[in-house]
């Protein structure tokens, strides 16, 4: 029985990694040749925060770090900056998950929104401190708003298609396995 739970957890981690790799691949496709005037949501970030809040045992820190570091390299972002910030945000989300188990969806959504805003603020501050070129503030704010707006949809799709539900009492032990 414990082996079935362990293999289910690893299967969900493989699903999470495959989903993130698919999202990276879609971002790399040359679908538009002109610069966009709007910023769409960062689905990889939203999926990671949603899964970390609902099933904290699935997106482990090394897995999140590796996937976001790969995204940093492939999407030509400063290597490791977004990965480090997202790992910290994911760990905060994982630590809050047991307390959020009985909370309403609105409070879960607010918690994720605060983390997404914090990620953006940290990215802007660190980029400014080390003199990195940053996207315009308007585009970053638009992306944060899109992330927050799409969070319920990502949670719904994760729940329906992938079976990612809030962890119950038996699943609340957050392990690094």
Describe the 3D structure:
This is Rod shape-determining protein MreD. The chain crosses the membrane at residues 63-88, 109-132, 144-164. With 177 residues, the chain is mainly alpha-helical. The protein has one domain. It is 70% helix and 0% strand. It has six helices and no strands.
Q: Quote the average pLDDT.
A: 90
Compressed to H and E, one letter per element, the order equals HHHHHH
Helix share, percent? over 70%
Overall tally of domains: 1
Distance between the termini: 16 Å
**Beta-strand content:** under 5%
Q: Report the principal-axis shape.
A: globular
Low-confidence stretches: 171-176
For the largest beta-sheet, the strand count, sense and barrel status come to: none
The helix tally amounts to 6
Structural class: mainly alpha
Instruction: Count the beta strands.
Output: 0
Radius of gyration: 16 Å
Protein name: Rod shape-determining protein MreD
Transmembrane segments: 63-88, 109-132, 144-164
Organism: Shimia marina
Keywords: Membrane, Transmembrane, Transmembrane helix
Task: Write a concise keyword list for the protein shown above.
mainly alpha, 177 residues, 6 helices, 70% helix, single chain
Concise description?
This is Rod shape-determining protein MreD. This protein has helices at about 1-30, 45-55, 60-75, 80-100, 105-130, 135-160.
List the helices and strands and how they pair.
Layout: H1 2-28, H2 43-54, H3 61-74, H4 81-100, H5 105-129, H6 137-162
Helix pairs in contact: 1-2, 1-3, 2-4, 2-6, 3-4, 4-5, 5-6
